[in-house]
Amino acid sequence: NAVHFAMTKLGDDYCPREIHTIESMPLICQWTLSVLNKAVWKTISAFESYKFSDASTVLYSWWQYQFCDVFIEAVKPYFENLSEFEYAREASRDTLWISLDTGLRLLHPVMPFITEELWQRLPRAEGKKESIMISEYPSVVEAWTNEGIEEDLEIVNAAVRKFRSLRPQCNENRRFPAFALCRGHHITNIMKTYEFEITTLASVSSLKVLVENDMAPAGCAEDIVNKNLTVYLKLEGTLDTETN
Q1: DSSP 5-62
Q2: Separation CA 244–CA 242 (nearest Å)
Q3: What does pTM read for this prediction?
Q4: CATH number for the domain including 52?
Q5: Digit-coded pLDDT (tens) for 105-126
Q6: Percentage of the chain modeled with pLDDT above 90
Q7: Does any domain span residue 94?
Q8: For 8, 107, 186, 192, which has the most beta carbons within 10 A of its beta carbon?
């Protein structure tokens, strides 16, 4: 599914290219390359230690929980509104290709046949080998590592999970207003910086960031992310008490 999504978004005219200005890319792209880099390091370390089950766990975790669940879902709006997000869309295409090319080569020792088939479908980079079997195995790219963004996204993803858990099952397709009560400048800056990603991943209609002295919103379900962050989802008037 990830390769199918990528092929529809890359288009027939996409030409893979090296990334030289990572700092200017959208934060979600920077995060994806950073966690991919960490997955490369962990996988190589596990193989060198003959811990094959650990390598499989790392690979599954990156593909399922980071690349598919977070990155692909976060960048979908870039491709839905073609009148906006032009630069973010191009950066997302580059990140898509790099992630799939690297991820498939990383996975190849565990799933040789399916990775060969999927890798052959990717746009061909200049100098690309004829087969994934004779391609270089991925190695760590120091420029991709960004521990700060990884730490920020841990908080963002935790908040997204809390927002999702607050959604009533009887209104799964409806988007509700969300609020984040932040204690401290650091957590406030994170929630404001990643407002777009949070509203996208949590499927909320809006996100209002509250600070420590603000009143908690009424008519909301709430949950605690950590000692510095409480999230609210406005559900007032959405439940039929007689039916539910």
Answers
A1: HHHHHH-TT--------GGGS-HHHHHHHHHHHHHHHHHHHHHHTT-HHHHHHHHHHI
A2: 6
A3: 0.90
A4: 1.10.730.10
A5: 999 999 999 999 999 988 888 8
A6: 72
A7: yes
A8: 107
